[in-house]
Structure formats: C-alpha cells, structure tokens
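Many introductory courses stop at the sequence. We go one step further.
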Amino acid sequence: MIIPLIVACALFMQNLDSTSLATALPTIAASFGEPPLRLHLAITAYLLAVAAFLPMSGWVADKYGARVIFRAAIVIFTVSSMACGLAQDFNQLIMARVVQGFGGAMMVPVGRLILVRSVSKSELVGAMAVMGVPSVIGPIIGPLLGGIITTYSHWRGIFWINVPVGILGFFLAGKYIDDMREEGVKPFDWIGFVLSGCGLASTVFGLDTAFAKQDPDALGLGLLGGGLIMLLLYVWHARRVPNPIMDLSLMRLRTFRVSVTGGSLFRLGVGAMPFLLPLLMQEGFGYSPIQSGALTFLSAVGSLGMRTLSRHILRRFGYRPVLVWNGLLASLSIGACAFFTADLPIWIMMAVIFLGGVSRSLAFTAINSIAFADVERADMSHATSFSQLAQRLSLTMGVAVSAIILHQVAGEATRLPVSAFAVAFALIGLVSAGSIFSFLRLPSEAGSVLAGRKIEPTS
C-alpha cells in the first residue's frame, strides 16, 4: 500500500498543477496581456518537455537507481513550480514550464516503474487503483482550487501548492522505497535520444505553429516536416542498434501495441477536455474562474468513484468488452459537450461532465494496466518509458489539435464563439472513438491474469 501512495504524491502534484492551471489560463492571459488561446502553450510546453525527455527515464533509473532519480525529479519539479509562480512575463512562464516538464518526465514514469517492479502482475490492477485514488484527488480539487485562488487571491498561488507535497514525497520516497537498479545496463543511446526527442518536439510544435492562423505558416510546416523526418530516421536507427532508447520491438506484443495505439487515440480526446471546458465556460459563457472550476471538477469526482470499482468490472467482464463499450461511452461524453450552450440547464452539463469522468477513469485503468500484461520483467523499464511517452504525446496532441480547430473555426474573431467549441468537441470525440477499432483487435482472453480471471503462472 505504501509504495502506490508514495508514487501517488508525484501524480498528485502533476494532476493538481495541470488542472488548476487550465482553470486559470484566461486570467493568466489577461495578466500578461496575451490572447487566451495563446496560453495553451503553457500546457503544451510542459507536455512537450515531458515527451522529449521521457525516453531516457527508464535508462537513468536502471543506471543510477529508481529511488535516486525519483527523488531528484521531485526536487526539480517542485523548484520549477516555484519558478512558474515567480514568472514576470509569458516567456519566463513557458521556460519554467519546460524545466517543470523535464522533472515530470523523470518523476511519473520512474514512479510507475517502481510500482510495476514492486508487485506481481496479479496485484498490478489493484496497486494501480490504490495509486490512482490519491492522484485523482488532484484533478478533483484542482479546478475548484484553481478557481478559488484565481478569483480571491492571485494565479501565482497555484504553483506554490506543489511545494509541501513535493517535500512530503521526497522524504517518504527516501524512507520506504528500495534503491532498485539493474545490473549490466547497456550504453545510453544518444543518437536515438536526439532523434526521438527533437523529432517529437519539432513535430508537435510545428503542427501547433503551422495552423495557428488561417494561412499555413511556412516555419511551422518546415518544423513539422523536419520532425517527421527525424522520427522516421529514429525508426531506421532503432532497428539497427542493440540498445535503442525506445524499444520498438515491444510493439510485437499485441496487448502493448493496442495500449499504445488505441490508448493514444483515446487520450487525444481526453487531453483536450481540461483545455476546452474551462475556456468554453469562461470565454464562451462568461463564467467566473470559480464557477468554471466548480463545474469541471465534477469529472474528477466521477473518476474517483470509478477507481474503487474498476478492478471488479474488469474481473467480471474482461478487458476487451470494457475497453470497447466503455471507450464508446467515454467518446460520446466528449462529443456531447458540443451541445453545451449558455441556455442549457446546468444539471445536464453536470451529468455529462460527471459521467464522462466515470467512463474515462475506467478506460485509463484498463489501458494503463493492459500494456504490461505480456511484458517480461527485463523489459519493464523500456515498456514504462514507451507507454508513458505515448500517453504524454497524445495528451499534448489533444491540446494542440483542439487549439488548431478553435483557431481555424474562429478565424479573426476577437472573442472565441461558442460554435467554435462545438466543432472542436465533435471532432475530438470522433478521434477518440477511433480507438475502438484498435481495442477490437484484442483477443478475448487478453489481460486475464491482470483482471484476476486467471491464476498467474508460478514459473
């Protein structure tokens, strides 16, 4: 119990930070004299830094010890949070968020690696559920707390909340987590790190820049094309070296492949929600930050309730039916937000947001755990880094794509129209629903040991 709870301190900081920030974006934009839509860079800069540096997390944990890296990452994340709170302009905030992303790139995946190496496969779903309960508290109180701080104090206070949590996590990790490290760690793949990190960052930033205006931006298109070329070069490189920074051979495992492909499409839709909903409430409906936060936090309340039931549902029905049917329900809840208007009864919006949180929580538990169903212990660090990279990249793309849709639909309008949000929710919901085709490729018995439907082999 104690290890999942310690790892949850890291997830708590990250989730509290991101959900609080999303609620405060319009206020921060006004403080810096920037358009509200441009402040999506405060989210994507963090996620891009995570995606760029995450591939090295597994190697450094194996080389220097998971406990050492986990504690160092907590320190980096906490100090950079303080720097965000002290930022005097937009550029300083973005730079501090990049450093914060570097800390997050080490903190969360290494924490998950500690977890998967500490429990048996038959206990993994339960351990992830335990770890998930405290981490969901962050999204529950994040939007509301962000609204309260922004309305009654100053948005800078959002970043200072991480300080006591970081200090607690640092000392608990030193006391209770063993110094796990692997013997005979292979040399670091520097070429692969440069190709994958620069390729991912260039691709996402290029996509975000190229279509931020009505006419495509030449520099953005160049970055997008260059990034895609570097990613193709990485695939070529990874097949020719014995120790690639991201082991693409893991994709031969069907359960892992479905978790990455289907999970990425699903998360693209989910990643857009914390960005779109507060912006719709405040820019479209004229709600205050605290009113917006009070509504959007219902999603996390529903998520918390499902955490305690997910293992029982997976044991009863199995992974494939849950991922397919629940994935469809979760995608419909995203698309349903396209019908939100200022005149719609508020209880309908509350119900949609709450049910969306319930279905997305069950999907996350299933997607996160099925990735490790057939992974051997020796490959756990690579699998953890790879799956976390896919998660962060898809969340980044969700924010970037939704911002592009808003830009294109709104045009040169000085205020974002509600109709632009309707288009964004509808398209994002369709993309998320595309994950179902990947989930359908799972065999019926996939994840039987994880779900407790089959006894784990002893040898």
